[in-house]
């Protein structure tokens, strides 16, 4: 985890230098002059087990620095309070982020009854309280109302925009936030544990745009009490499972051990596309697709596909396209890095990194 930002009094103390010490920002200048690792074209997914207390932006910055990657992004923000699955895309993997964000997500979270907060989690201030505590049977019955497509009002402290301004910025400014209910889908929600009368641990499998904090808020109200999220963990995102996650401290230890160990934690770009159909094409068709041209699927054994497809040539991902009526049109073409390619012991090419497939000129 990154070191916390210095408090104002710490920053002030740092400015009080000993007599005779050089003025200015000497230590900072020395850091700036230190050699930095050159940024590289790195392609793949890091399935980070984000620790609680770290923002998603901070987590991406750490991973990007460890890999010295030129480009990085994540597939869905996790609140600082939350831990768990934060898929981080490097390089060409950023082109597959929408397919992860559209996938189902599994959350494990604790709802604490008796208090509703302005943020709908334990970091907010209390806005309503209740002495009532629901029974297990009451909770089970209420959970049925959350299944399927429901209308949900997002939390006031959310990243949604109102007239171009983030809702949480409006709320922090002391102004009222009015958000319209919108449809979300909850495929599964069930009790995992009831540690005490004040708390229930739930697990939910949700579609895109679902706010777990809103589930806790609405469940409390439905049960005649109040509630907020006191623990939140994202277990899975799309095809990325909890057992495949890499903790931040392990990732940092790998980076200190060797480059080969670090790159062994990198999943291939196409791991994000397991939930859409795959199509294999010839090298000549691959060349046309990489040039942005459509291809016709010919022959009696040609697959019948409709919608998004992941397109491969000789087992290497070359594009994502749309298939309709036997024609495939690319809309995302992959340009694999040709610079630094880490190799494990023994000299064999790293198995988790893609190489350019050979193509024929049309």
UniProtKB/TrEMBL annotation:
Keyword terms of this UniProt record: Isomerase, tRNA processing
The organism's taxonomic lineage, starting at the top: Bacteria, Pseudomonadati, Pseudomonadota, Alphaproteobacteria, Hyphomicrobiales
E.C. number: 5.4.99.25
Pfam families for the chain: TruB_C_2 (PF16198), TruB_N (PF01509)
The keyword tRNA processing appears for this protein: yes
InterPro entries reported in the protein's UniProt record: PsdUridine_synth_cat_dom_sf, PsdUridine_synth_N, tRNA_psdUridine_synth_TruB, TruB_C
Domain Pseudouridine synthase II N-terminal: 64-212
Record: active site: 79
Entry-linked SUPFAM superfamilies: Pseudouridine synthase
Catalytic activity annotation: uridine(55) in tRNA = pseudouridine(55) in tRNA
Region spans: Disordered: 1-43, 340-362
Gene3D superfamilies: Pseudouridine synthase (3.30.2350.10)
Enzyme class: isomerase
Residue ranges annotated for the tRNA pseudouridylate synthase B C-terminal domain, each copy included: 213-274
Protein name: tRNA pseudouridine synthase B
